[in-house]
Amino acid sequence: MQHTDHATLNASEQLVVAAAAAAAPSVFNTQPWSFVFTDAGMEVHADPHDASMPTASAARDVRLSCGAAVFNARVALARRGHGSRVSVFPDEGDPLLVARVAVTDDAPDRALDELYRWLGSRRTNRYPFRPEGIPAAVLALLHDAARREGATLRLLEGEPEYQRMLTSIRHATWAEDDAVREDRGARLSPSARPPAIPVGNLGPVPRPGRPDDAPVRDMAQGLDLPGRGSAAFEPHPDLAVLETADDDPGAWIAAGQALQRLLLEATGHGIAASFANQPLEDAELRPDVASGAAHFGHPQMVLRLGYATQQPPIPPRRPLSQVIRESGAA
Ligand SMILES: Cc1cc2nc3c(=O)[nH]c(=O)nc-3n(C[C@H](O)[C@H](O)[C@H](O)COP(=O)(O)O)c2cc1C
Fold first, then answer.
1. Ligand 1, closest atom to CA 280?
2. Ligand 1 lined by 274 (C-beta under 6 Å)
3. Are strands 230-231 and 205-206 parallel, antiparallel or unpaired?
């Protein structure tokens, strides 16, 4: 297909696109991105701060987060009536330039345009879900959303596979490094301004007595943060693994785009999600998450999906003035 680059985005369009991109999920709400607007469209740059991240798999998680931001930019461009074309890692000499999102004069992608309305209500939900499962027809839409971005959503349906995932999550939680836990504590502490994830977004502490059984990740495990309360979680949520055929920076960007596409689709169908990535952050446990008999590829995210009992508040984002930068500025 022939693409032609459009002239440019005006200032108010730039703000809309940047705000949409900045609403993407990011590892530990680090928002590890900045955006540069050019005559051709928008560039997404990864922040060079992998080393300060609390997880061992920081490089991957930063790129995944940037991929989700790229997807949101495409959605916002479609809403503004533009086509878009993404070039991933377009400059070999600049590995932090994750993507150029060119504005084209192609007709906007209707499917992307329709997802725009869910941008503001999508959020990571660490509250208990209702016990009912997700209908097969809706799961099929989520599979399709991932597939359209070059990834696969593998639902853990069989008991052995499901139980193996719970075991991996449990092992990873036990095995977590003290340094990682301390770093997390510092980021979540009320004295961090603002805390990376506010108390209202952490969800309740899984009810004592069954803490290891809850397939929800308590991001503040071991921290005594006031105001969380405790609750029993649904015993058997739908769990799924987002996978890609490759495991390199390009695949991580694809996984981030697929993640955001399926999360917006899920939001539109009343489905909430949180993540239990702890086994993916442990180099020894990570292969276990992928070792299903007919697995497709490399695991990138572990998702818990279900119907929310409570909608958390909107977590904080950096002001756009800190996220949009001039070309060439560090
Ligand atoms: C690559 C990546 C990994 C994440 N890992 C986890 C996780 O293991 N557990 C969790 O509860 N949230 C996880 N999150 C969700 C982020 O914490 C969340 O996106 C961030 O706090 C912003 O909140 P929001 O998604 O509600 O906008 C992850 C997000 C991304 C993009």
1. 8
2. yes
3. parallel
Count CB-CB contacts under 10 A for residue 109: 16
Placement of tokens 């330039």 in the chain: 97
The residue whose CA is least distant from atom 20 of ligand 1 is 29
| CATH (one of 1.10.357.10, 3.40.109.10, 1.20.1250.20, 3.40.50.300) for 136-306 | 3.40.109.10
Average pLDDT, 10 consecutive residues per value, the chain (330 residues): 63 97 96 96 91 78 97 98 97 96 96 98 96 95 98 90 89 85 85 86 82 73 87 91 95 98 98 95 87 73 97 95 84
From atom 21 of ligand 1, which residue's Cα is the shortest distance away? Answer: 29
Q: What is the DSSP string of 126-160?
A: -SPBPSPPPPHHHHHHHHHHHHHTT-EEEE--SHH
Mutate to test the pocket of ligand 1, among 275, 300, 305, 314 (most ligand atoms within 8 A of CB): 275
Comma-separated ranges of CATH 3.40.109.10 domains in the chain: 11-123, 136-306
Does the global pTM surpass 0.90? yes
Ligand 1 centre to CA of 124 (Å) is 6
Dist. CA 272 → ligand 1 center (Å): 13
- CATH architecture, range 11-123: 3-Layer(aba) Sandwich (3.40)
